[in-house]
C-alpha cells in the first residue's frame, strides 16, 4: 500500500471518528449532564470495545485487511477515543477541588476501557 493511500485511509477514518466523538459526547452530555465527563467515558469505552473486537476477530476468526485496520483501528478509533481529553478533564476536576470525582473518573476510564476490550474479545469468542 502506498503512502498516499495510507494517508487517505487515516484521514477518512479520523474524520469519521472525530465526528462520532463530537456528536456522541454532546448527546451523552445532554442526557446525563456534565457532573462527570460522561461523554469522554462513553467514547473511550466504545472505542476500546470496538478495538478489542477488531483485534480479536483478526487474530481468531479471519485476517483483517491491513487497509481496514488502518481505516478503523488507527484512523477512526484513534480519533474517537481520547486520552488527552480524559487527562485534561481529570486535572480540571482536581483543580476544582473535586478530588473524589477526579479519582472516580480515572478508575472509571481505566476500568471501562479494560472491560470493554475484554467484552470485545469475548464477543468474538462467542461468535467463533
TrEMBL record:
Keywords: Cell membrane, Ion channel, Ion transport, Membrane, Metal-binding, Sodium, Transmembrane, Transmembrane helix, Transport. One of its GO terms (cellular component) is plasma membrane. The keyword Ion transport applies. It catalyses: fluoride(in) = fluoride(out). It is found in: Cell membrane. One of its GO terms (biological process) is cellular detoxification of fluoride. Na(+) is not transported, but it plays an essential structural role and its presence is essential for fluoride channel function. GO terms for molecular function: fluoride channel activity; metal ion binding. Its main location: membrane. It is a multi-pass membrane protein. The chain crosses the membrane at residues 7-24, 36-58, 70-88, 100-124. Na(+) binds at residues 78, 81. PANTHER family: FLUORIDE EXPORT PROTEIN 1-RELATED. Belongs to the fluoride channel Fluc/FEX (TC 1.A.43) family. Fluoride-specific ion channel. Important for reducing fluoride concentration in the cell, thus reducing its toxicity. This is Fluoride-specific ion channel FluC. It comes from Caloranaerobacter azorensis DSM 13643. The gene is fluC.
